[in-house]
Amino acid sequence: MSLNETGWRGSADAWLDAAYQALIEGGVEAVKILPLAQRLNISRTSFYWFFKDREELLAALADRWAGKNTGSLLAATQAYAESESEAMLNVIGCFLDPEGFDARFEFAVRSWGLQSPGMTGRVAQADRERLAALTDMLQRWGHAPLDADVRARTIYLVQIGYISLQSEETLGERMRRIPTYVEIYTGRKPEPRELARFHARHGYVPETADLT
Known about the structure:
By secondary structure, this protein is mainly alpha-helical. It has helices at 3-6, 12-26, 33-40, 54-78, 84-96, 103-113, 117-140, 145-164, 171-186, 192-201. The protein contains 10 helices and no strands. The N and C termini lie far apart (57 Å). It has 2 domains: 1-51, Arc Repressor Mutant, subunit A (Orthogonal Bundle); 62-211. The chain is elongated.
């Protein structure tokens, strides 16, 4: 429906949702008012009911990314766990949860950061916050500061590498690798019961070979 037919101007969230899709599909250059209005099938003047200009929309989009991705990872580092292995599974699970860390959003924002000094700074700040949270988690489980720092960097850089390289693997492939990742990251193997809870939480039914 058009604005003339319904009087609908959209909403701030609708414009942000459209901006998110445009960013994912075409990069930051695709996030422009007229194409977004066409995507929403409303007048471009409706945009100005919610945002002063394109820069304000981009700032809101960056805030959404920080809240979703940095927020999800920080929450995972604070989640309840009975053991360090389970704490690490919480972190790894954050990246598997479609409602948690959004890998496509992360890739698009990091690409955006290559074009914008302002976003370069925001991405760098997010990296610092995330690494600090991982380091703090590891120290709470008894790792010395330098050891925790190196392990945190290993965890984080591997995951960002997955995203930056757009590495593809099936859920089964990822799940088979996760116990070894946990052991590398923490020095401890996850217990079968911890893996069972983790698999159930992510809707994964192991094949017989995964259980041996």
